[in-house]
Amino acid sequence: MYKKLMYICVSNLHQMKNSSLYKGSLNTIIMKLLEEKGRMYGYEITQKVKAITLGELNITEGALYPALHKLEAEGLLEVEVEKVDNRLRKYYKLTEKGNKETVNRLAELEEFIKNMQNIVNPKLSY
């Protein structure tokens, strides 16, 4: 269910690339990807979103890294640094608090999408 929700959320967002709706969903997108994958580095996150949306949604470094740092400051993410090809790479993963918050945010997002679907196109409600 959540994988479908993530796809619906991200695929619908490509139409609103620069809107406040997209910007307000970035943290949830990051958290959902980390929930699924376990841990990821920044570039990997951007490429995964690009792949899921077939290139329609591109997360810039200028949007991604402030979001990652904010989530880390809130205690929702932790960072692991690893040496890869003679350089340091930061991997982000959810904390226990982050896992719980991800469940909450996905439930809120699911309810939001359901309500918006009822308002915008009642015949397609699920």
What would you say this structure looks like, in words?
This protein is an alpha+beta fold and 126 residues long. It contains 5 helices and 3 strands, in the order ααβααββα. The chain has helices at 2-13, 20-37, 42-52, 61-73, 96-120, and strands spanning 39-41, 77-84, 87-94. It has a 3-stranded antiparallel beta sheet with strand order 1-3-2. A hairpin with a 2-residue loop joins β2 and β3.
Strand content: 15-25%
| Spatial separation of the terminal alpha carbons | 12 Å
Cα shape? globular
Mean pLDDT: 84
Order of strands, main sheet, comes to 1-3-2
Which structural class is indicated by helix and strand composition?
alpha+beta
Described by strand count, sense and barrel closure, the largest sheet is: 3 strands, antiparallel
Oligomeric composition of the shown chains:
single chain
Count the E strands.
3
Fraction of residues in helix: 55-70%
Q: Tell me the series of helices and strands, N- to C-terminal.
A: HHEHHEEH
The count of helical stretches stands at 5
Low-confidence stretches: 5-16
Cα-atom Rg, whole angstroms? 15 Å
SSE layout and pairing:
Elements: H1 2-13, H2 20-37, E1 39-41, H3 42-52, H4 61-73, E2 77-84, E3 87-94, H5 96-120
Antiparallel strand pairs: 1-3, 2-3
Helix pairs in contact: 1-2, 1-5, 2-4, 2-5
